[in-house]
Amino acid sequence: MSEVKKPSFDGWLLMAVLALSAIGLVMVYSSSAILAHERTGDSFYFLKKQLVAAGAGWLALVLGLKLGYRRLARLAYPLLLLAIALMVLVLVPGIGVKAGGAYRWMRLGAFSFQPSEFAKLVWVIYLAYSLAKKREKVRSFSIGFLPHLLLAGLLVGLCMLEPDFGSSVALLFLMFVMLFAAGTKLSYLVGSVLLAIPFAYHAIISSPYRYQRIMSFLDPWANRQGAGYQVAESLMSVGSGGLWGLGLGEGRQKLFFLPEAHSDFVFAILGEELGLWGITLVILLYAIVVWRGIRIALKAAEPFGCYVALGITALFAFHAVVNMSVVLGLLPTKGLTLPFISYGGSSLMVCLAATGILLSIAPSTERQQQKSGVAVRRPKPSPRVAEVPL
To answer: For the chain, which end, N or C, has fewer CB atoms within 10 Å of the first or last residue's CB respectively?
Structure first.
């Protein structure tokens, strides 16, 4: 009897992403049907757009898996230049679309595209390529730290001009995680954080809406009908779900009480309709994604694959933790989507494309082992990565 051929990718990761995507489509429809009917007369309006994005995203996932992550190393600089060009173009009136007081989207026919979402994935790819190339000099300030910091400053500056404070924080977070894993001196990282605190303070104080967000986070009930309204409604939505939820489609906060119920605050509607068990299921699925992502990073056959896997996993984890924390009132509102679940074509397509890249890294070591007939000795990307147990 012939042996059953094992899949050449991480099945756990793929199933977790598939489950999150399915939950996302259901929750987007449940949380947006009434709003869509009110605005367009079509209850399926947002769902249809999300389905198109999901189709494009799954195609990108398959392409990423088939083409493999190694091809991206040669495209690191062209992709980075493209990302910077798009982030500049989105600031140009007539090209960028202004919504909610910010220029974050570009119109592509009937759809819109958010360059900052694309830039996050490109940033991971570029950092992985650069750190793998400079791994012998990554502890050097002038070679391993300063160039990445200056480039991050450029990307963050473009994000702040939109403005998009959440994406700015995400870009910096990714840089610090990947530099730390690569072995950059901790004193450089801590020193740069301390130097950045006054700039972050000024960015918050000088912007009335950011200051109001901080105040509403500290006490949302003090300004219940003002800056604290969204956070208060979100907490009421999650709290009313209880253990088992009100039932799918039975949520009340989406009836024009909770703003952005289908996008940034879809997790609140999920908690209201599916209860604590639904929240727990989603958290477990994200835990599987992070677990398998870290495992892929640690088992990668080369430093570039290790850093790409680590960066993509950190991107998913950051977005998920920040979004859920905002919904639960644990962090100020940031405007970051919940990966695979929130309404937003750019986010969904980028997340699925990143998953394809991550899946393509998983079988690299196994293929080498099968060809050689012996175990492959993986190079150590950095002392810090090597210290983490499998």
So the answer is: N
